[in-house]
Structures are given as structure tokens and as C-alpha cells.
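queue> pop job 88
queue> type: inverse folding (structure -> sequence)
queue> payload:
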């Protein structure tokens, strides 16, 4: 599976940078400036770093990536906007946070060439395509909870025997979790989802900043059960999830969000970087093995 992803990634970068060769003059001008392209995002650093390294090798330009939860990235960007001192050039974030910032007028309109490879219904004409839908579900520590005893549905998670044993992101601090809860009516119906959300709050789960620390607490055994991203079962060997406990999709926006005020040559290279992200994610999502992750 890893080999398929690596091949897909490099093929996508080659396609993207063939078009970038036309920007040789802009690249040379950008090299004369001090500093780097600044990227903010919630995408994991180990996913972003190979893309940034390939971009650097092809252009000679450096990229500095600052990562935090979707909400913290949004809060920092909006705080900079209101202070009149925006720092970032390109944003990699989830769709909920992206659209909040879009309403604030933070981004320039930019549609990556990579958008042509996506279905029209998932392409936002201002910020680009939605490149992934990330499954959210129930994960558990295999050393603390047996497969037979693990909750097999969201409703079962409310069983009194699990009280005090569940961790999840705080929806008042984490935009993606709020977005996920708000979308549960699509799979549960409005009345049932409203009741579930109320009962979940009443059960007082342990709250953390985002999906990553929720999975980490399960991995270390601090809390045996979590509402988190199913894919953490791949990176944390002590975490398991029943295949039928996928409980919705947290929709993540494409990283084609460019600071509106970017004017200098080095900041004008930000759209090229966001195109690279889009091509890479599209290729990986289409590759064999990606679906199994």
C-alpha cells in the first residue's frame, strides 16, 4: 500500500510541476526574497512534509509549516487578520474552518488546475475541491477492551457501563467535531441525532482539543474508548475499531486557500504549492490501497 501511495505522490508532483516550469521567472524573483512560504494547517506534518520537500527540490523555495487543530489554525489566522498582520500564505484546513474564514474575506479566489480531476459536485469555485472525506467512529484500546465488549454503535456508547471511559474532542473548541455532530441527522434522523447529542453530553465524556489527542489517550490506555478518526488504527498499534462502527464523515476541504493580500513574488508562489497539495491528494486518493486506510 505504501509503495502505491509513494508512486502516486511522485507522479502527481511531476504533472503539477510541468505546468510550474512556465513560472520560471516568478520562481527566480521569489528566490531573491528572504524568508519562506508560510503554510498553516491541521493536516498531519508527516503527510505534508514529503509534499513540501518535493516542492522545495523543484523550485528551490522553502516552506515553513505550522500545524495545530483545525480550530486553533482558524483562530490564529483570524486574529492575524483582525490585527492587520496576516502571516501565512497558504492554508491547509478542514472545510468547516475554511468556510468560516472564507466568509471573513480571508482568502483570494483561486481554483487549482488540479480541480479538473475532481467531480464538479465537490469543487468549491472559490477555494477548490474537497479532496477527502475522513471517517469518524469509535476506537478502543485492545488491551483494555475486548472486541466483544467494545461499543458497536453510537447509541451503545451511551450504555452506563461506558460512563467515564470515553474521550472525544470538545465541540466547543474543535470545529470538525462540531461539524460532525451537526451532520449526524443525515444518518440518524433529526430527532434521534438531537437526543443522542444531548445524552452524549450528559454522559460527560473526557474532552480534549482534537481527534489526535483523543486517539493518543486510547493508545496509552489513559481512556479506553474514543470518538476519533478511524485511520488512527493504522498509526497506533494498540487501537482497534469495529468495521461497522464508522459513524459519519468529517468533510475536509482542499488546501487551495490562499491569503487574499499575497502580492510579493514569494507569496505569489503559494498557489503553486496549493496545486501541488491538490494533485498529490487526488493521486493518493485514486491509488490502490488508499481505500483500505
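queue> result:
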Amino acid at each position: 500500500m505504501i509503495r502505491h501511495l509513494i508512486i502516486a505522490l511522485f507522479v502527481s508532483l511531476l504533472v503539477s510541476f510541468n505546468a510550474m516550469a512556465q513560472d520560471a521567472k516568478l520562481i527566480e524573483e521569489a528566490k531573491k526574497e528572504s524568508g519562506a512560504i508560510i503554510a498553516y494547517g491541521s493536516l498531519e506534518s508527516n503527510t505534508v512534509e514529503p509534499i513540501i520537500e518535493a516542492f522545495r527540490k523543484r523550485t528551490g523555495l522553502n516552506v515553513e509549516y505550522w500545524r495545530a487543530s483545525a480550530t486553533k489554525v482558524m483562530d490564529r489566522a483570524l486574529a492575524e487578520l483582525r490585527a492587520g498582520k496576516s502571516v501565512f500564505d497558504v492554508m491547509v484546513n478542514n472545510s468547516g474552518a475554511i468556510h468560516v474564514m472564507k466568509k471573513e474575506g480571508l482568502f483570494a479566489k483561486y481554483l487549482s488546475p488540479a480541480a479538473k480531476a475532481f467531480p464538479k459536485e465537490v469543487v468549491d469555485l472559490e477555494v477548490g475541491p474537497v479532496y477527502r472525506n475522513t471517517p469518524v467512529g469509535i476506537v478502543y484500546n485492545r488491551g483494555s477492551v475486548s472486541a466483544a465488549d467494545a461499543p458497536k454503535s453510537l447509541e451503545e456508547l451511551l450504555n452506563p457501563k461506558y460512563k467515564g471511559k470515553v474521550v472525544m474532542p470538545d465541540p466547543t473548541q474543535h470545529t470538525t467535531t462540531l461539524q460532525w455532530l451537526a451532520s449526524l441527522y443525515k444518518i440518524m434522523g433529526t430527532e434521534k441525532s438531537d437526543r443522542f447529542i444531548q445524552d452524549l453530553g450528559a454522559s460527560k465524556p473526557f474532552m480534549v482539543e482534537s481527534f489526535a489527542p483523543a486517539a493518543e489517550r486510547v493508545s496509552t490506555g489513559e481512556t479506553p474508548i474514543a470518538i476519533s478518526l478511524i485511520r488512527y488504527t493504522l498509526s497506533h498499534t494498540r487501537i482497534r475499531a469495529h468495521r461497522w462502527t464508522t459513524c459519519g464523515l468529517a468533510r475536509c476541504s482542499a488546501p487551495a486557500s490562499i491569503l487574499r493580500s499575497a502580492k510579493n513574488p514569494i507569496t505569489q508562489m503559494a498557489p503553486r504549492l496549493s496545486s501541488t497539495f491538490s494533485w498529490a491528494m487526488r493521486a493518493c486518493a485514486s491509488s490502490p490501497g488508499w481505500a483500505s486506510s
